[in-house]
From TrEMBL:
SMART domains: Haem_bd (SM01235). GO terms for molecular function: electron transfer activity; heme binding. Residues 32-161 form the Haem-binding domain. This is Heme-binding domain-containing protein. It comes from Sulfurovum indicum. InterPro entries: Cyt_c-like_dom_sf, Haem-bd. Keywords: Signal. Gene3D superfamilies: Cytochrome c-like domain. Pfam families: Haem_bd (PF14376).
Length: 173
């Protein structure tokens, strides 16, 4: 399962579509200039919404994510003592790379991700409701890394509110 995922990822990483998607600037510019005025105003509303969502992220969610998620999804403040143990370091480096590949939280919301901000919010909402992050092997090492009920509630409420905001904006298109 793990190896399959890794192989697929490697294949994707070398496919031109992904390389393109990773920020070929001239391509992006072309797309931008061909966008109509209408599209531009939609984009303005959308970035205003992202800003609004980010504001509540910074206030309510970032402090939780800093404690429980940044070790892998951003730059860790300090690695635990067992990081230096043989094998552990490799495993953790792999997790940190893989995690940021899926969702990089270093620049706040919208997160850097292959998914849309709406889909990212849905994954976060799911984690609040069903768990799944931090990965179990990480919780085993850090007992305090599990999300508390209060934190889960906060995450669910922020992601649900934000999803609603983005969806209501979509309907006006
Ligand atoms: C020990 C490292 C680690 C920590 C800590 C961690 N994650 Fe992750 N996260 C990963 C890895 C590795 C992946 C990619 C592979 C996977 O899904 O297991 C991932 C993937 C994700 C994804 C994408 C899932 C998807 O469906 O693609 C989300 C969303 C996410 N993490 C949110 C969080 C949140 C929120 C926290 C904090 C509560 C957190 N993670 C803490 C390692 C971590």
């Amino acid at each position: 399962m793990k190896t399959n995922k890794k192989t697929v990822f490697l294949l994707l990483a070398f496919s031109p579509a992904i390389v393109f998607g990773h920020g070929d600037e001239t391509h992006e510019e072309k797309v931008k200039t061909t966008k109509s005025v209408v599209q531009k105003s939609v984009n303005t509303t959308q970035s205003a919404l992202y800003e609004e969502i980010n504001k509540s992220y910074l206030k309510n969610i970032k402090p939780i994510f800093e404690k429980k998620c940044f070790d892998c999804h951003a730059d860790p403040e300090n690695t635990p003592w067992y990081y230096t143990l043989p094998g552990i370091k490799q495993m953790m480096n792999y997790d940190m790379r893989e995690a940021k590949e899926h969702m990089d939280m270093r620049k706040d919301f919208p997160f850097i991700s292959h998914e849309s901000p709406l889909n990212d919010l849905k994954s976060i909402q799911k984690i609040g409701m069903e768990g799944g992050m931090p990965p179990l092997r990480y919780i085993l090492g850090h007992w305090d890394s599990r999300l508390t009920d209060a934190e889960k509630k906060e995450i669910i409420s922020w992601s649900t509110r934000s999803i609603k905001l983005l969806k209501s904006e979509k309907k006006h298109k």
